[in-house]
Amino acid sequence: MQIVVYGIGGVGGYFGGKLAKTNHKVTFIARGRHLEAIQKNGLQVKSIYGDFVAAPNSVTSDVRSIETPDLVLVCTKSWQVSDVARDIKPILEENTMVLPLQNGADNADKLMEVLGGKHVIGGLCRIISFIESPGVIRHKAFHPQVMFGELDNEKSERIQHLKKIFDEAGFDNLIADDIGAAVWKKFLFICTISGIGALTRSEMGGMRENPFVMDIMRQTASEILLLARAKGINLTQKDVDAVFEGIAKQDPHTTASMQRDIMEGKPSELEDFNGYVVREAIKYGVDVPVNEFIYNLLLLQEKRARSKY
Fold this sequence. Notes:
Domain Ketopantoate reductase N-terminal: 3-152
Pathway: Cofactor biosynthesis; (R)-pantothenate biosynthesis; (R)-pantoate from 3-methyl-2-oxobutanoate: step 2/2
Order of helices and strands: EHEHEEEEHEHEEHEHHHHHHH
Strand order of the largest sheet: 5-2-1-6-7
Domain Ketopantoate reductase C-terminal: 179-298
Protein name: 2-dehydropantoate 2-reductase
Oligomer: single chain
EC number: 1.1.1.169
């Protein structure tokens, strides 16, 4: 199988690195010093489950130089997905699968707007990892898992085949019974913690110890649940409860990726998290005052960050 991993950060680096150790032909799309380091030394992955070095068949920044892929893993930030779709569109063939693995609720929608529906598979992943230095990925926490499925939840032949590929790579993977609900369950968690984490600039342990902050997070999650129900997504109060059970178990030093980006003055996924909730709430007539508050306060920093890039 010809596999392209677009974006070799924490997500693409770990799962792409695992795929690169199989007999499948794997190409990494990377940029700058990270690209140069991988070309020279391979991709070094430092993992809680054991370090490894992956040597993909090719590493490039030029999508036009790539052979037609059977599978594209999109592992960029959510705000980059539409640009990625336009970039890869010329190299796709009729049966190419495109699987987004980043945070956010509407990544499959963004891909379909550019590529149409036949290529796109729903997906998400669970991992805490990041670029430690050029050519080096640090997997810090979480048991890595990819969850995926057809957008209509059909257990198709290509989905079954994709599971075999992921099994060969040796990472935990699961065909979702309801991929839409699965994506929203993760979105519920990540959106609940990211915005307030960015505002407080605090680690998970500090936020857990503050009853006022925890109440704000509960209100954030409750609003997302209302929106999901309005959109016909199969989320329940049990899913909200599960989010806070997860928060209670998090390492006290945990921070969210959107939070880290905002704190470092980088463009973030704010528009894809709280911003998305605010925009969709207007469409569906749902009141989300807490998400609106968080979004508009962080938007000032987001605009400053984007003016520099």
